[in-house]
Amino acid sequence: MVNPVRIWDLPIRLFHWVLAALVVFSYITGKVGGSWLEWHMKSGYAILALLLFRLLWGFVGSDTACFSHFIRSPLAAMVYLRALARGDVRPVVGHNPAGGWSVITLLGALLLQAIAGLFVDDEIATQGPLAVKASNAFVAQMTRLHDYNQWVLVAMVALHVVAIAVYRWRFNLGLTRLMITGTLRGNLAPGLSVPRIRSTGLAVACLAIATGLVYAVVEIYPRMR
User: The pTM is what?
Assistant: First the structure.
């Protein structure tokens, strides 16, 4: 008998797809420039709020969302990748050891980009809300970092998409479908347990805290003497 298993909760799935859409939107509006830079900045604030939510959810969320569930040692990631190269896909619930490090790296790069954006000053018409609170030298460094790090993100996103494609066509694993439905169509492999799923209400509270922090940084702190 096949028993569908909930792997990803609704908050983490919404986070994934909304973040993906905002990253694409931010990249496009940043390249178009002009009046679109205002929307680029708003998108950046939304991304920062989502990332802060993900950090909170990584500690109090469902099992598969918690960092303690999927962050393994670099050695464990290497062992997994070697097995994968041999065609041996070891069953896991949630992120595999290598995928866990990929997630952490991508989230870190996005967080760095969002924070740097708070200090950006193009010396024309666009200035991050915290630029007035920092020295000219620091603002210049953050502006360069924001510019260079975008290409790191492009490379990481491209690698992420390639990895998903490899899992789909080489190993017949539909990771995209799983992140849409959240449910595994089939029984778990022996030795694996059904993950605990936290309430959506707790996720809403985490998002409210994250949004409040971003609002304080963007709207309140810059006006303080």
Answer: 0.94
